[in-house]
Write a structure and sequence with these properties.
Elements: H1 2-89, H2 94-101
């Protein structure tokens, strides 16, 4: 009977060891999954930190171009309004009304850029 009890004892110990080993492997697997998830969070935060300055520079560049476009459109709108006004006050009988009110033709908006009349010289020999 002592051998029988010993066998049962060994069997119980073996089952406990096997059960503990299975739990150990599961714990290790889940621990690695948590570490991988934490690493992904760090990667995404670093990526965001790297992209934000680039985004700011992109917006600055776009804003500069947008300002140039809006300025050009505003100048064109002004010149079209001046054209309509000047044409209107030169017609009869509006010419009489304009002279009576002291209104004369308006000047067009012209930006004087030095050297704008000549094309820039390009040298590809360098």
């Amino acid at each position: 009977m002592a051998t029988r009890e010993r066998r049962w004892g060994y069997a119980v110990v073996l089952l406990v060891v096997l059960a503990a080993g299975c739990g150990y492997n599961t714990i290790q697997t889940y621990d690695e999954q948590v570490n991988a998830a934490a690493s992904q969070i760090k990667v995404q935060l670093q990526r965001r930190a790297d992209l934000v300055p680039n985004l700011v520079e992109t917006v600055k560049g776009y804003a500069k171009q947008e300002q140039t476009i809006f300025t050009a459109v505003a100048r064109q709108d002004y010149n079209e309004a001046v054209n309509r006004y000047n044409a209107y006050i030169r017609r009869f009988p509006q010419v009489l009304t304009a002279k009576l009110l002291g209104k004369g033709p308006r000047e067009y908006f012209e930006l004087q850029t030095p050297g704008a009349a000549q094309a820039p010289k390009v040298d590809f020999s360098k």
